Amino acid sequence: MELFDVFLLEAAINGVLLGGILALLALGLNLIFGVIDVVWICYAELVMVDMYAVYYLHTVFGWPLPVAFALCLALGALMGALLHQLVIRPVLAAEPINQLLVTGGVLFFLQGAATLGFGIEFKNLGIQLPLIAVGEINVSFARLIAFAVALAAMLGLYLFLKRTYLGTAIRAISQDRAIMPLMGVNPNRIFLFTSALGGLLAGLAACLLVLQYDIHPAIGLSFGPITFLVCVLGGLGNMIGGFVAAFIFAQFISVGGYFFHLEWGYVLAFLFFIAVMFWRPRGLTGGKS
Amino acid sequence: LRQALAWIGIAALLAVPLTGIGNYPLHLIIMCLLWGFTYTSWAIMGRLGMVSLGHGAFFAIGAYVAVMGWNHFGLSPWIGIALALALTAVVACMIGYPCFRLKIVGHYFALVTLALSEIARMIIVALRDVTGGSLGVTPNTALADRTGSIVALQFSSKLTWFYIVLAVWLTGLWVWTRVDRSMTRLALEAISQEEDAAAAVGMSVTRLKLGVTILSALLTCIGGVLYAQYQLYVNPETVSGIGVSLQMVFGALAGGMFVRLGPTLGAAFTLLLAELLRLVWGHAIHGLDTAIYGLMLVLFIIFMPQGILGGALQAWGQRTKPLLREAS
């Protein structure tokens, strides 16, 4: 019985660490939704491209890892800005669902382009970070780093939004898109900046994920849907809600996967998601309808 | 004149196999009609403002229930169809009723239904002992004897399949037309524009939406059954999950989901694009078709939101169905 509990505890701890990554992914998506009112269905594909960037810079061209990470962040920001400028902006006035679908086109494009450019083989950095043993519990160091960085990033974003002038402008725009232009704020510049910031967060998530997972063109599909569900569960655009939801979701996957198979963990999490949607359609923190 | 044209079109399609085209073109036509039928099924509700990303689940139910019943219990897929339809109706109600009751619309509806299609995929993978998991599954063959092949809904002749799929596709178009001319469509269009106002004038929003959702789901499920029986191979990635769900949405969107033949044209367009690229560049280059496809979708949504056929009809100066609503 003793052993049983140790493994359960390990699953729970891994769930918390997984929650950190999910929370970081959800953060970027929520930021964009909250400010621009658009869901980037292709968010996970941006992460995928960033992961390839790290792989090529580090493993193929032999650049040091920190430089590769920095460039990956820059690339993420650039892609976010480009995505907004080229794809989202022309359909901003169209029906909201068109904005969701247009990024779905980008999803296929990036996936196809990655297959074309990088091949379908699994790639990895070949870096094996050690496992840390605490008593009988093994914790992956890579996951621990990811968790810490994700927390730091969230804190940083929170301070940025609360304490800086630009952050205040972003929050103002997210509260009322129509009135802010009258107050002398240029919404397009704010949107562009927010998109770049969202892309940067995708780049950050890529840096953390690339330490743990193999890269392949379809990797976006394996964590993309979960990220959307985390965001919806927390209430789209609600960053605190997304943060809480990420940890709940991760526990379902990790502990549920421990009791049954990993896939059943996902099934449980998704069923839980649908149940919550019927109980609180605007997300956990959104109150009842 | 329109009716005459339609009959000529049907007659021409019926005569297609008589021209003695090879198996490969016939296969392409069958796939176009099959996917065209599925996209049309999706568009029946999609055009009314309910963008579902969950139709992969219904497609998967059709494909897997029929094959599983046959492989494990020796149930004829004909019975499998009935079971699959029943299950689809139940699932569609379970997801639809609360959604419409609680006014989950737009982004939220798309993402809730997305969860549904992912659940379907995960369950198929998780039940790998029964379903074969990600490797997919092949129905036990019954092609050897004639009666067996009818019971098992397996035919080696592409000709048979062509006529079956053609009939189903025409039925799909007929359902579309019936919905298109009904009061229900007008009611649902009103609902999709202003739900509260529609409810205020006495429309039972939940019932109308649920009805058209179940209809659309059932047709999609039939598409799934036919796909599995025709291909004689299913796997969770190609019949369920976010991939096939998005494929349906985009096929309908590319062709034009507000006109009757739009989704079919979308299916033909995407299929021929993929085949053409494969013929030109061969198997060596993976992903080029997906990349071009994605790029074209982006361009379509930005520059031609009514799709190819919708845009063409509009340019022709004909009276088309109401175009995309103004942003609310």
Structure, described:
The complex is a heterodimer of chains A (289) and B (328). Chain A has 289 residues and is mostly helical. The mean pLDDT of chain A is 80. In chain B, helix 4 runs antiparallel to helix 11 and helix 13 crosses helix 14. Chain B starts with a helix and ends in a 13-residue tail after the last helix. The relative contact order of chain B is 0.16. At the A-B interface, helix 4, helix 8 and helix 10 of A face helix 4, helix 5, helix 13 and helix 15 of B.
Order of helices and strands of chain A: HHHHEEHHHHHH
pLDDT under 50 segments of chain B (min length 5)? 318-328
The class by helix and strand makeup of chain B works out as: mainly alpha
Identify the overall geometry of chain B: globular
Share in helix of chain A = over 70%
Strand order of the largest sheet of chain A: 1-2
Instruction: Compute the number of strand runs of chain B.
Output: 0
Strand-residue fraction of chain A?
A: under 5%
Largest inter-chain interface? A-B, 52 and 51 residues
The count of helical stretches of chain B stands at 16
**Which structural class is indicated by helix and strand composition of chain A?**
mainly alpha
Helical coverage of chain B, percent range = over 70%
Distance between the termini of chain A: 44 Å
| Strand composition percent of chain B | under 5%
- What characterizes the major β-sheet of chain B? none
Mean pLDDT value of chain A: 80
Structure, briefly:
Chain A is mainly alpha-helical and 289 residues long. Chain A has helices at 2-36, 43-60, 65-88, 96-118, 141-163, 165-175, 187-209, 219-234, 239-259, 262-279, and strands at 131-134, 137-140.
